[in-house]
Structure formats: C-alpha cells, structure tokens
Specification:
Distance between the termini: 35 Å
Largest sheet: 6 strands, antiparallel, barrel
Strand content: 35-45%
Structural class: mainly beta
Number of strands: 14
Strand order of the largest sheet: 1-10-11-14-13-12
C-alpha cells in the first residue's frame, strides 16, 4: 500500500481480534487461461472459487479441498483479523445511512470487505452495511456492520 497520511495498520495489528467472514461461492470459475466460465452443475477442477477477497478484479482466494460444483449455493467461512468496536453515542445518532443500534459495530481491517458480506464475531452475525471511505488518507478499511442475529 502506498504511504498514507494516517497509518493505522500497526494499530490494527496490535489490537486485532479474529472473526469469521462468510464468503459466498461464485456461480462459475476461471479456466486455465484466466477466462470466466459461467457455472451450471459444472465440476470445477479440484478448486472452488469464493466471492470475497478481490485484487484488481481477479479472485484472490481459492480452496483446493476436493471437487465441488461451480453453482453451489452456500457460504464458506474463513478467518480474518481486525478491530471490532461498539459504536459511539455520536455514531449511534448521526450516521447518514440510517439508524444504528447497540448491536451494531465499527470494523477496522487491512483487507477490503464487501457491502452485504456477512461476518461472525462472538456468536453474533453481522452484515457489512456501509464503508467509511478514507482510502485517500488511511491505510485501513473502515466499515459499519449491522447486528443481524445470533449464530
């Protein structure tokens, strides 16, 4: 990452906790030449690709754990680290995308998440609701997550 005005990655590293990201399986796969092949009950060559971490448009995560169908409709868990904090009183009252509750959280991570992605932390499920875009200034990604229920 390029040098940013505010460097928080060390802060995240020092105070990080582990949580589970629930990635959706993509309906398709990349062939040996890197072309996207739409899936419909298509056996994928020992590799199932998951929606989640993307770097410049290409899939960054694979799981070589046996064969799978490319149109599988499921989520697969993976571990990620970051800082997960309760919202401040000010954030509970004034965030622009709606009303937050005490079950909601602010998340600081060094790798991007996606809006709508689900995570699990301390037996609580959350959905990534919005991003605070400080990418021009900071070396971390900041998200708001809505508490959506217990595991």
């Amino acid at each position: 990452m390029a040098q940013k005005q505010f460097e928080f990655a060390d802060f995240v590293e020092e105070f990080k906790v582990s949580f589970t990201v629930l990635d959706e399986i993509i309906n398709g796969y990349y062939d040996d030449e890197g072309r996207w092949i739409e899936g419909k009950d298509t056996l994928v060559n020992d590799t199932v690709y998951y929606q989640g971490d993307f770097t410049l448009g290409s899939v960054d995560e694979t799981t070589p754990s046996g064969q799978g169908l490319s149109d599988a409709d499921a989520e697969t868990p993976r571990t990620m680290e970051g800082i997960i904090l309760p919202l401040t009183n000010d954030e509970l009252q004034h965030e622009s995308n709606g009303v937050y509750t005490t079950k909601d959280r602010k998340i600081y991570v060094t790798s991007p998440l996606k809006i709508g992605q689900r995570i699990e932390y301390k037996n609580q499920l959350y959905t990534i609701d919005s991003e605070k875009d400080y990418s021009d200034y900071a070396d971390v990604y900041i998200y708001f997550a809505k508490g959506v229920g217990d595991v």
